[in-house]
């Protein structure tokens, strides 16, 4: 098998300038990623019907005696019973950001800085694995990058080869064990991995592996990848990765580290971004976004292509095709919300994309107004585009506090919209007596939008016109983004006019889906629009656990089937034959 694969891919291997060699070998233990939260729309068009679900964005932790038997709110209570779990930012959350560096004597410190640049992709856990004297050494922790790492921690990570990871998930009692990168030892050595994405066939792969004797420490889909690498008969290590990835379905942008190699892999559809750059000393850098390259003064070279495996070792850089890849299906939400404006994602400037989104809204949904403001920070660039096209001044009508934590003790006399007011402060001098256009990137549940409209009107705005720089979201994501269930998505249950009435704005308009595709031009077919259309490039056929990574069974105290309360249904627009498949998985 290995020989066959080696011969089939040999023609696609290319080598770059050799890099300085680096030593290695290792120890290990599993230490994981999280399984994102799914859900599905009931149709495939941008129509909006039915009534609103009033579900709230609630965090959960696990009961101490059973990781999955009883979920309860994680809100911490003040002795007087007053508290708020500040989580009103209802935007979809990017699950992870990854970094890999080869050939730099300060690899761990550069990794640390690159993770800072990717902090927006995950704020609840961070980790770095570095290789020194053939040993993979790991430091991981809960919190922001600056909270997890300090000088003494980085001193524990010498070497010129490192990978890093930032993670988003909900708080939970066992969260630390799920912080990546994690390391595993097997008969041929050790391997570390950091993963951005989600595998839609995780359940069936895990069931197969457990049937053959594998023991799982977590419910992480990334752990499946390590098991597949360990049991592969292919040689060398590179082909073990290829063998494992050929069995995966879904989204994955991953970086692996061994005693002497850095490997970057991207799934055949290219759902999640992964770029490659090089520093002036020749060291090679991989990262989820180009903003990470900019901070550590690495020059952007190219994307890791969909279906590609890139290997960096003492021989240089080798590239090969993982497998035949179909039409790319890159996540459009990277350009709408996730990525930083100064990044280049999928070959396009994120700033320019958002500016044009705003211009399209000004052209297709104009309204008489005196001032244009943004919901900071993600709505700013689209608002600038809208204001420029409409010929109306852009001003800061909302000021965002960057020092807000998650939980606050609320005063005894309840403050309406307390969570939003902690984070956003209206500027009365900008708003009073004005007809205001407020631009935001998306509406998910609608609860935050209604509070923002009320905030603006209380500050004296004469009219509030909401403009959304994305089409209505009607479907949940399976490919590495934490989004609410379809029942919680307001656009999946209400028409645009009903949403306008619910949030209380004087008018409401979304970015038209056809205009979004037209703006992307010839590249429009290369993007995934499942959250807008309900058409999934890789059909999810398995049930998935909501926000599992922190609290589901650890492979010792329960089985897959015991996770009753946390499961939400997969896309039920299935053919009859899929039912047998689903029952066989669980």
Q: Any overview of this molecule?
A:
The chain is an alpha+beta fold. 25% of the residues lie in helices and 25% in strands. The protein has 18 helices and 31 strands. A seven-stranded antiparallel sheet has the order 7-6-8-5-14-13-15. A hairpin with a 2-residue loop joins strand 16 (308-313) and strand 17. Helix 6 (221-231) crosses helix 7 (237-245) and helix 10 (350-364) crosses helix 11. The protein is globular and about 70 Å long. The two termini are 31 Å apart. Mean pLDDT is 79; it is low at 1-89, 170-174, 545-569 and 572-586. It holds the Pfam family GATase_7. This is amidophosphoribosyltransferase. GO terms for molecular function: amidophosphoribosyltransferase activity; iron-sulfur cluster binding. Its EC number is 2.4.2.14. Keywords: Glutamine amidotransferase, Glycosyltransferase, Iron, Iron-sulfur, Metal-binding, Purine biosynthesis, Transferase.
Features:
586 residues; alpha+beta; seven-stranded antiparallel β-sheet; six-stranded antiparallel β-sheet; 31 strands; disordered N terminus; iron-sulfur cluster binding; glycosyltransferase
Look at the helices and sheets and give the structural class: alpha+beta
What do the pLDDT scores average to?
79
What is the number of E strands? 31
User: Helical percent range?
Assistant: 10-25%
Q: How far apart are the termini?
A: 31 Å
How would you concisely characterize the structure shown here?
This protein has 586 residues and is α+β, with helices and mostly antiparallel strands.
């Amino acid at each position: 098998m290995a020989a066959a694969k080696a011969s089939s891919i040999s023609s696609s291997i290319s080598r770059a300038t050799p890099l300085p060699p680096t030593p290695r070998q290792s120890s290990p233990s599993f230490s994981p990623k999280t399984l994102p939260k799914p859900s599905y729309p009931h149709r495939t068009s941008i129509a909006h019907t039915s009534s609103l679900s009033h579900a709230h964005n609630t965090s959960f932790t696990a009961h101490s005696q059973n990781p999955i038997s009883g979920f309860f709110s994680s809100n911490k209570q003040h002795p007087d019973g007053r508290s708020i779990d500040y989580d009103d930012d209802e935007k979809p959350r990017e699950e992870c950001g990854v970094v890999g560096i080869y050939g730099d004597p300060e690899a761990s410190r550069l990794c640390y800085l690159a993770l800072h640049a990717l902090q927006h992709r995950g704020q609840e856990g961070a980790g770095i694995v570095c290789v020194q004297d053939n040993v993979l050494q790991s430091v991981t922790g809960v919190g922001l990058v600056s909270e997890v790492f300090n000088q003494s921690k980085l001193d524990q990570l010498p070497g010129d080869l490192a990978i890093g990871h930032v993670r988003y998930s909900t708080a939970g009692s066992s969260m630390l064990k799920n912080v990546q990168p994690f390391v595993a030892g097997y008969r041929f050595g050790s391997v570390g991995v950091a993963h951005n994405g989600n595998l839609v066939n995780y359940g069936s792969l895990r069931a197969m592996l457990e049937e053959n004797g594998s023991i799982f420490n977590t419910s992480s889909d990334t752990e499946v990848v390590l098991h597949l690498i360990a049991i592969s008969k292919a040689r060398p290590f590179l082909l073990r990765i290829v063998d494992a990835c050929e069995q995966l379905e879904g989204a994955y942008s991953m970086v692996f580290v061994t005693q002497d190699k850095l490997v970057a892999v991207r799934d055949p559809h290219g759902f999640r971004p992964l770029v490659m750059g090089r520093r002036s000393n020749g060291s090679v850098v991989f990262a989820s976004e180009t903003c990470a390259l900019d901070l550590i003064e690495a020059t952007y070279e190219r994307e890791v292509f969909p279906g590609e495996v890139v290997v960096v070792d003492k021989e240089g850089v080798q590239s090969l095709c993982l497998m035949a890849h179909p039409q790319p299906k890159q996540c459009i939400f990277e350009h709408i919300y996730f990525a930083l404006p100064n990044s280049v994602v999928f070959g396009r400037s994120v700033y320019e994309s958002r500016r044009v989104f705003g211009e399209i809204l000004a052209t297709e949904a104009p309204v008489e107004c005196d001032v244009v403001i943004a919901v900071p920070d993600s709505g700013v660039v689209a608002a600038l585009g809208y204001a420029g096209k409409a010929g109306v001044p852009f001003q800061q009508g909302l000021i965002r506090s960057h020092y807000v934590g998650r939980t606050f003790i609320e005063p005894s006399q309840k403050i309406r919209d307390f969570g939003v007011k902690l984070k956003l402060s209206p500027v009365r001098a900008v708003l009073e007596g004005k007809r205001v256009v407020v631009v935001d990137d998306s509406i998910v549940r609608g609860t935050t939008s209604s509070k923002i409209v009320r905030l603006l009107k209380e500050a004296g705005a004469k009219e509030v016109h909401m403009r959304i720089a994305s089409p209505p979201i009607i479907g949940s994501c399976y490919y590495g983004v934490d989004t609410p269930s379809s029942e919680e998505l307001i656009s999946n249950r209400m028409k645009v006019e009903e949403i306008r009435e619910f949030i209380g704005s004087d008018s409401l308009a979304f970015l038209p889906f056809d205009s979004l595709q037209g703006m992307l031009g010839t590249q429009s077919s290369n993007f995934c629009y499942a959250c807008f259309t309900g058409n999934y490039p890789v059909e999810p056929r398995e049930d998935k656990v909501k926000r599992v990574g922190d609290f589901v069974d650890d492979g010792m105290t329960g089985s897959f089937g015991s996770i009753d309360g946390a499961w939400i249904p997969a896309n039920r627009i299935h053919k009859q034959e899929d039912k047998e498949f689903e029952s066989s998985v669980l």
